[in-house]
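Title: Comparing notes on inverse folding

I've been comparing how different people in this forum approach sequence design from structure. To keep things fair, I'm posting one structure and asking everyone to reply with a full sequence. Here's the target:
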């Protein structure tokens, strides 16, 4: 069967797969299974580190095998997580579920954008990459936003099991929709053994880290994304400290993913009006203000003020997503098709590592100090990101021109390049 616009199918499949009703009440689910707030942050850190370990290999697989197959594998990992949590419970079961989710995210993030780009290439529409990639992120975020608004209501009336069953049904349908997508031919590689594959992958990553046109954007984008994870996973403890009713948790998460959806939908228009480097400065200032907002929430413990400041932080996260998506699209414009997914995965790998370290650190900080002091520690860490931001401005000041395709010297010798 010939699909007129397979990217619409992909968008709607992503919309259904991101109906995560559990998200706004996940901390409560942890506590019901006997875990603490510290365990909550520890598991999210393990989630990021596990995703890191599979980030580059999954992107590399996306350069070899049809990306459609990798997407199906990604959704299947998440389905396994849901089934595990439906039939079992406890510390290790929750940890196993988070690891499965990290595998799902790793295999998705290194491939989804590559699938869109390569499909557009077959249609001679690569110039529309920002537009279609933005739309995918719009469907992803709006799906999570709607589920986040409904999730707490369903939890209060029907419990966790209903949320898990609903997610299972929608995720199954999303997998079936992926089978309707055409297979976009992967770039052909001539690699023999597994050691050759990892050696090739290492050289691509090493070259990306050395390239001045890529590395500072990667590190700054990674710091923003990692700090976003600190904010997002602090939402529930912050709302609890501000005495915001559980029924309103979904509203905050709805705003969070609503702003993300808006960022994705308006991506190409936003970056047409403001340069990526200037947006980086805006994000730096907004993130400083977000940390101060967290401290004010913890100090005042006011539900009304807490809701206002939480919504502001959600807006800031939307702004960060615009920068991150713009950076990823920039990678696609600077790299060749056969290494595109791998380099994009290296970019994600940086943010995964930073997020993993920061979230695991949260577990140990909370064991000895308060949440307020922990936020001050993270504020100090974030201030250091001024270095890659200054390097980005120095890059443009020296008028280093970007080419249509980046030559990663000696990175893919086995491909004959």
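Reply #1:
Here's my take.
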């Amino acid at each position: 069967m010939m699909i007129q616009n397979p990217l619409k199918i992909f968008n709607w499949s992503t919309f259904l797969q991101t109906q995560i009703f559990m998200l706004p009440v996940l901390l409560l689910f942890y506590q019901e299974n006997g875990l603490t707030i510290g365990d909550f942050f520890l598991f999210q850190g393990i989630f990021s580190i596990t995703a890191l370990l599979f980030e580059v290999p999954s992107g590399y697989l996306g350069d070899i095998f049809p990306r459609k197959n990798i997407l199906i594998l990604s959704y299947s990992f998440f389905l396994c997580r849901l089934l595990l949590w439906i039939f079992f419970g406890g510390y290790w079961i929750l940890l196993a579920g988070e690891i499965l989710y990290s595998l799902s995210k790793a295999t998705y993030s290194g491939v989804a954008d590559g699938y869109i780009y390569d499909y557009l290439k077959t249609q001679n529409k690569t110039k529309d990459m920002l537009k279609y990639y933005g739309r995918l992120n719009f469907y992803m975020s709006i799906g999570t936003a709607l589920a986040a608004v409904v999730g707490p209501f369903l939890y209060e009336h029907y419990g966790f099991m209903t949320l898990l069953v609903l997610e299972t049904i929608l995720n199954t349908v999303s997998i079936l929709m992926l089978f309707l997508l055409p297979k976009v031919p992967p770039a052909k590689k001539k690699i023999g053994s597994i050691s050759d594959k990892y050696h090739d992958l290492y050289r691509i990553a090493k070259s990306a880290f050395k390239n001045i046109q890529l590395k500072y954007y990667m590190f700054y984008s990674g710091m923003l994304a990692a700090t976003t994870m600190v904010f997002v996973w602090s939402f529930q403890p912050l709302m609890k400290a501000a005495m915001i009713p559980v029924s309103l948790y979904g509203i905050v998460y709805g705003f969070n993913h609503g702003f993300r959806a808006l960022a994705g939908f308006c991506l190409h228009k936003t970056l047409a009006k403001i340069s990526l480097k200037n947006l980086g400065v805006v994000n730096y200032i907004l993130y400083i203000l977000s940390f101060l907002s967290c401290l004010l929430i913890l100090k005042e413990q006011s539900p009304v003020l807490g809701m206002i400041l939480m919504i502001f932080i959600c807006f800031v996260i939307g702004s960060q997503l615009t920068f991150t998506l713009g950076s990823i699209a920039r990678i696609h414009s600077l790299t060749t098709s056969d290494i595109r997914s791998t380099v994009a995965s290296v970019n994600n790998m940086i943010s995964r590592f930073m997020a993993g370290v920061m979230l695991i650190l949260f577990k140990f900080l909370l064991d000895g100090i308060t949440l307020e002091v922990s936020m001050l520690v993270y504020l100090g860490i974030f201030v250091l990101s001024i270095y890659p931001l200054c390097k980005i401005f120095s890059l443009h000041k020296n008028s280093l021109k970007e080419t249509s395709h980046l030559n990663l010297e000696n990175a893919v010798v086995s491909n004959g390049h």
